[in-house]
Amino acid sequence: MEQLSNIFASWPPLAVAIVLDNLAAGLTAAGIVTSYPSLKPEDIQAALSYSAEIARERVVPLPESA
């Protein structure tokens, strides 16, 4: 986690969210890199890894189904 945190220390605060939003919207990693030329394909993978690590650290209770 520390290594991933170091990668994102130089990114703007919303960079990981932007990558995830674009993936959720159906863009491919190649499409995101085309839209954001400062990113490299390995940055997309790093954003996913970082997000997964953060998700493991936080438990969000889901509402019960009606």
Q: Work out the helicity level.
A: 55-70%
Strand content: under 5%
Low-confidence stretches are none
Tally of distinct domains: 1
Q: What is the string of helix and strand elements?
A: HHHH
How confident is the prediction overall: mean pLDDT?
80
Instruction: Please count the helical segments.
Output: 4
CA radius of gyration: 14 Å
Task: Report the span from N to C terminus.
Answer: 37 Å
Number of strands: 0
Structural class computed from helices and strand pairing: mainly alpha
Largest sheet: none
The shape, in one word, is globular
Topology of this structure?
Blueprint: H1 2-8, H2 15-24, H3 29-35, H4 41-57
Helix pairs in contact: 1-4, 2-4
Give structural attributes:
66 residues; mainly alpha; 0% strand; globular
What would your notes on this structure say?
The protein has helices at residues 2-8, 15-24, 29-35, 41-57. The chain is mainly α. The protein has one domain (2-56). The relative contact order is 0.16. The mean pLDDT is 80.
Task: Characterize this entry briefly.
The chain is 62% helix and 0% strand. The chain is mainly alpha-helical and 66 residues long.
